[in-house]
Amino acid sequence: MQLIRQLRQEIRQLPHKYINPASLQFRLTLEIVILSTLGLSSVGIWTSWKMQQILIATHTQNVEYIAARFPRDVELYSEMLPIAAGLQKTINNVSVPGLLIWVKSPDNHLLAQSADLDSAFTATTELMSLAEMPLKPQVYQVRDRYLVLYEGTVTVKGKALGKVYMAQDVTADQHELISAIRSLTIVCLLAMVGMMMAMTIRIRRSLQPLQEMSQMAGIISADDLKEAKLQLRHAPSEVKELAQTFNMMLSRLSDSWEQQRQFVSNVSHELRTPLTIVYGYLQSLLRRSTNLNDYQREALETATSEADRTIGLLQDLLNLARADSGYMQFHLEPLVLNNLVLEVVGMTEKFSSRSLTVNAKKQIEVIADRDRLKQVLINIIDNAVKYSELNQPITIDLESSDRQAIIRVSDRGVGIPLQDQSRIFERFYRVDEARARFAGEEQSGGHGLGLAIVKTLLEGMDGQITVQSKPGEGSTFTIVLPMR
User: Fold this and answer.
1) Which of 160, 149, 136 shows the shortest CA–CA distance to 71?
2) Where are the beta strands (DSSP E) in 297-437?
3) Coil vs helix vs strand at 367
4) What is the rounded distance in angstroms from the CA atom of residue 27 to the CA atom of residue 199?
5) β-strand 404-411 against 394-401: which pairing, if any?
6) What is the DSSP secondary-structure string of 229-289?
């Protein structure tokens, strides 16, 4: 349950405004926004076109009606008046507000026109030139006016008098249409923004269970396998099925990990006793035998060394198995760190003939298990000796900060490559062959468990360990422990 609460807290703290083009949430949102934009744009364009066509059709029908009666009226007035007078009389009779009419002869002479054509329209010449072009059922813009144009033929008694041109002024209606289209565009944009925000929130909530699963898979450890359960209440059925499968997988992994730890513990325990007996007999044989030749003595020494190494490996495995199972006991007590460090340094100088420097400005007391901490210091200092030349200095600095004791073990040895620094505390992980050859691990039998045990022991005492290193310049291991 504690893992689940920690997971949910981390998810709440994620930056929701972070945009990741490779994420499923970003792609779904982008695709839906694009489709919605295309859909709303298509609807808006079609609506605008349809409204324009309705405007054109409404005014075109009115003009066509007037154009259909225009020849009859001309023929009627021509029986009583001259042709020019009949044309003008007809124009005056059929004119309505906003409608401009003019008639031209076949030789392009103006025969008659609306009385207010010149006064109402400042671009009369431009209008007449436009009307003589092939016309389409659409709204034409001339200067600041919008017009629907029409062209027809005028015949009297079977004789063509010329062509009649009509221009219906729809400026006011066109302005209203443009205003409506702008309003429609704004509404569509607001709708798209609202839909995008709503879809982003909805998609984020729908994918939240997958994010929880991803976060849990990223932070889960072997110790959390039993308690790690993903609980989804308001998720789709497909995601719930995936979560159930995920929980079943965690359960199987937990069982497998427990069986593995139990197997390692049993094997280590069962093999350690006979190997210890073998080791004892080999040592006794070496001490008491006086008639061995050089070859036999070398063989016995090699067997004794390998037995001792194997016993150490089994002891390390047994310690790790106990730590994983929670059976490793720590006797935490106040102790003076300076004294323990000096003790370990003295032992190292005695057996390695190396000179080590301890820097401490004051006496530091910590809460730790003396034997476990001594094992940690021996391991770290032994590594510094092993991976540095005889003439290179090794320093141990003791400091304190914020109720924490800090131990820094620094050497000027071969160093650790950057790609290996994050993994050297893993079990059975060994750095590259060049570092191993420098330390003579082919002969010494390093098995990659030392630093893993150090990390496990320190965590059991509420401590931690980190490393900083550069190849060819050396390494610094930093141990942090709680102070008294």
Assistant:
1) 160
2) 333-336, 356-360, 365-368, 394-401, 404-411
3) strand
4) 12
5) antiparallel
6) ----SSS-HHHHHHHHHHHHHHHHHHHHHHHHHHHHHHHHHHHHHHHHHHHHHHHHHHHH-
Tokens describing residue 247: 């929980």
| Single-letter residue type at 272 | R
Nearest to 228 by CA among 208, 210, 213, 239: 213
Mean pLDDT, residues 196-212 taken together: 78
Could you tell me if residue 372 is left (phi over 0), alpha (psi between -120 and 50 degrees) or otherwise beta? alpha
Beta-carbon contacts of residue 73 (< 8 Å; ≥ 6 apart): 90, 93, 94
Domains of the chain (ranges, CATH numbers): 45-178 (3.30.450.20), 237-325 (1.10.287.130), 333-482 (3.30.565.10)
Nearest to 208 by CA among 177, 178, 168, 243: 243
In this prediction the pTM is: 0.48
Distance CA 311, CA 314 (A): 5
Instruction: Please name the amino acid found at residue 80.
Output: M
pLDDT tens for 415-454 read 888 888 888 888 777 765 545 555 554 444 456 678 888 8
Q: Report the helix count and the strand count for the chain, using DSSP H and E.
A: 14, 12
Centre a 10 Å sphere on the Cβ of residue 3 and count the other Cβ atoms it contains.
17
pLDDT tens track for 314-340 = 777 777 776 666 667 788 899 999 999
